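To whoever is covering the structure queue this week,

Two jobs came back overnight. Logging them here so there's a record in the thread.

Job A:
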Amino acid sequence: MSNGEPITYWKALAVAADRSELFLNEEAAQACFESCNEYIERLRAHQTAARNLQFVTGWGDFDMGLQLQDIFAKKAVGGENNMVDVLQSHIDVVEEMKVVFNKFFTSTHDVDKANAAGIEVEGPR
């Protein structure tokens, strides 16, 4: 990538699709795209649940209970490798997947439109 960002597996596949080095039929691409949307919805629901875990109480007033409460809250949100951030990294990958799948049915529609426009101008042969 030109901005110094490392190229990921799915970004590499997107480049391959742009170069016509990767092919997928439109129906399969559409089904994969829709599955990605559904998966992202589930991941976002899990993120919401994880955000709510930062407010779990009931560990008592003793120092050890408060420390445990803090440890578990940070595993949910804000700590190293917390659940919200891990789920976001999964969402980011699935978004990259969607870009690849979108190329296959978008380009098919673009070619169909161009062909239809040519037929309208020139008429059938």
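Job B:
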Amino acid sequence: MGRGDLTSDQWARLERLLPRGIKSGRPPAWTRWQLIDGIRWRTRTGAPWREVPERYGPWDRAYDLFRRWQRDGTWARIVTQLQDEADAKGLITWDVNVDSTVRRAHQHTAGAAKRGISRRSRPAASSSSRPTTRSDAPEVD
């Protein structure tokens, strides 16, 4: 058991919230407990899926379980149920913090002409940075 793996008590609380398998036949080679610990290891470390340790089962099995439950909303349902249970026991304090440090610029500040940068403020006889060619040179008779 790794230091971040689920304990027996945590697994007992989580197992009843998991969806029931409907497949019959041969039992799986890797338990859900191992696969979920592998998913938790990956999300905790931020490592690529292919680096999930072998003690948690094949990385692609853990990834498939993670994605399948993510798509069908199982993870969100589990979190909501665990939060509801903790809230009912008074273990969660729902404090709200309002921060007013975001400042917005006035609507007229966007797109206003800048002084000294506008093309209109350039003198009419300003020299161009474009090289002069024969056709651009003034004709001398």
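Note for Job B: Helices lie at 8-15, 32-45, 59-72, 74-88.

Please reply-all if you pick these up so we don't duplicate work.
Q.
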